[in-house]
Amino acid sequence: MFKIGVLVSGGGTNLQAIIDSITAGELSGIEIASVISSKKDAYALSRAEEAGINAQYIGRGDYKSSAEYERALIDRFEGFGVELVVLAGFMIVLGETFLNAYENRIINIHPALIPSFCGDGFYGLKVHEAALARGVKVTGATVHFVTGETDGGPIILQKAVYINEDDDAASLQKRVMEEAEWTILPEAVRLISEGRLKIEGNIVRRI
Ligand code: GAR
């Protein structure tokens, strides 16, 4: 089994998309070994428990430094033999302690077509508000490897979503999830588990 660990902070619909893909037999040989939430009341924790997955709340506030917090996450994931870490709506920026422990083995889903509407301060609904404020006609989602530069790592998959005249940030967020995020995140996990990707600098190639 290829074991993944999922970091969440919110509703957990992307976690659910991975769970559903496994249940549907689309991600064979893949197991969600551990889910960690940075928020105690995240609905993502209930989704994990419902699916019989080991899930735990580990809050940043209980640790003196980012390094100590990240060490706790690493210890937890290593204890479960996690080989790939998936950031599925995880709202804490990871530092070098975590990045070094899982170098080239962390992926993130971002709700825009990187390099648009990304980087520090662009998360959740804010991303869609920025896209609407700029008046772009197409947005989408991106799965990328995580490096020290926020949303700057090698891009694995992207999927475009057209913006409707009557979209607001909430309706756009929902459509980007439904039409892009929930498809490309499980697909990226599958490609990595099958050893189908190679990173060359900041470019991801299929092998
Ligand atoms: C998703 O839209 C995800 O792309 C976004 O947070 C949401 C989490 O939803 N992530 C970011 O903005 C990261 N910069 P979920 O908890 O229902 O999966």
Features:
single chain; 207 residues; alpha/beta; seven-stranded mixed sheet; two-stranded antiparallel ribbon; 6 helices; 9 strands; 36% helix; binds glycinamide ribonucleotide
Task: Outline the structure in words.
- The chain has 207 residues and is an alpha/beta fold.
- Helix content is 36%, strand content 25%.
- It has a seven-stranded mixed sheet with strand order 3-2-1-4-5-6-7, sandwiched between helices. A two-stranded antiparallel ribbon has the order 8-9.
- Helix 4 (96-101) links the parallel strand 4 (84-87) and strand 5.
- Helix 1 (13-23) crosses helix 6 and helix 5 crosses helix 6 (169-193).
- The longest helix has 25 residues, at 169-193.
- The protein is globular.
- The two termini are 21 Å apart.
- The mean pLDDT is 98.
- Glycinamide ribonucleotide binds next to helix 1, strand 5 and helix 6.
Summarize the structure.
This protein has 207 residues and is of the alpha/beta class.
Average pLDDT across residues?
98
Q: Provide the helix percentage.
A: 25-40%
Secondary-structure-based class equals alpha/beta
Number of strands: 9
Determine the number of helices (DSSP H or I, runs of at least 4 residues). 6
Radius of gyration: 16 Å
Sequence-ordered SSE layout with sheet pairings:
Layout lengths: L1 E7 L4 H11 L6 E8 L5 H8 L4 E3 L8 H14 L4 E4 L8 H6 L4 E5 L14 H10 L3 E8 L9 E8 L6 H25 L3 E4 L2 E4 L1
Parallel strand pairs: 1-2, 1-4, 2-3, 4-5
Antiparallel strand pairs: 5-6, 6-7, 8-9
The site of glycinamide ribonucleotide has 17 residues, from helix 1, strand 5 and helix 6.
